[in-house]
Amino acid sequence: MRLLFLIAITITCLACKKEKNPIVPLPPEEKRDTLDPDITSEGKLKIVWQTLIAPDSSRWGISFQPLAFQSNVLFSLETAPNNNLEREKLIMLDGLTGERLWEWDDYPGIGDSPTRLFARAIVGDKLVYNSQNEVCVVNLLTGTTEWCFDNVQGYGKPAITVFGTSIFHVQESRKDTANYLVRSDVDFNGWDTLFVLREEDGFQPHMHPPGIWIHPITLDT
C-alpha cells in the first residue's frame, strides 16, 4: 500500500512540472549581426572603400582615432613606436574615395614623440597640435604649416586648451624653477604670459592648462 502511495505522488509531481518556454528564433530580417555577409538591406553598415596606409608591420601604427574634417578623414601614422628620433605623419584622406590628399611632418625639431604626448584641437580649418615642447598649427585644407613653436629652453605640458581662437599652454623653463601659463591666437605665432608660478615664492611649479573658459580680453573666468 505504501509503495502504491509513493508511486502516485511521483506521477502527480511529474505531471505538475512546468515546461520551459521554447526558444523562438528571430526572423531573418531581424538578425543583429552586422558582420553577416548576407545582410544587404539598407541602413546597415557597409564598406565604402579601404586603402593600405602602411606596410603590415609592428613598426607602423595609428596613434589616435581618426578625426572627421568636412567630408575627409584625418589620422596620424606612427612610423617608429619606440624611437623618438622618427616622427609621425599627419595624413588626410578623401572621405569618399580614400585617396591620399596630403601628408604633414614639418616638425621644427626632434622633441618628444606625439604618440606619447599628443594633444589636438580643430579650430575652423586648422589643427592645433602639441607634443610637449612643440606647438604647431596646420592648415587642414592644404596640409601646410601655419606656424610652429619649439620651446628649446625647456618643455611644456602635454596638453593644450583651446577656447574660441585662443590657445592656452603651460611652459616650463630649464633656466628657472617656474611654470608659465601662456596664450596665443591660432593665427599668430607669439605667446602672451598670463600667469607665473615660481618655486621661490613658495609654490610647487606644476601647473596644468585651464579647464574653464577664460575671456581672451578681460581674462575673467
Protein model, in words:
This protein has 1 helix and 14 strands; from the N terminus they run H-E-E-E-E-E-E-E-E-E-E-E-E-E-E. The chain has one helix spanning 2-16; strands spanning 61-62, 67-69, 72-78, 89-94, 100-104, 119-123, 126-130, 134-139, 145-150, 154-156, 161-163, 166-173, 178-185, 192-198. By secondary structure, it is mainly beta. The longest helix is centred in the N-terminal third of the chain and has 15 residues, at 2-16.
Give the low-pLDDT segments.
Answer: 30-35, 111-117
What is the end-to-end distance? 92 Å
Oligomer: single chain
Gross geometry: elongated
Number of strands: 14
Q: How many distinct helices? A: 1
How does the SSE layout of this entry go?
Blueprint: H1 2-16, E1 61-62, E2 67-69, E3 72-78, E4 89-94, E5 100-104, E6 119-123, E7 126-130, E8 134-139, E9 145-150, E10 154-156, E11 161-163, E12 166-173, E13 178-185, E14 192-198
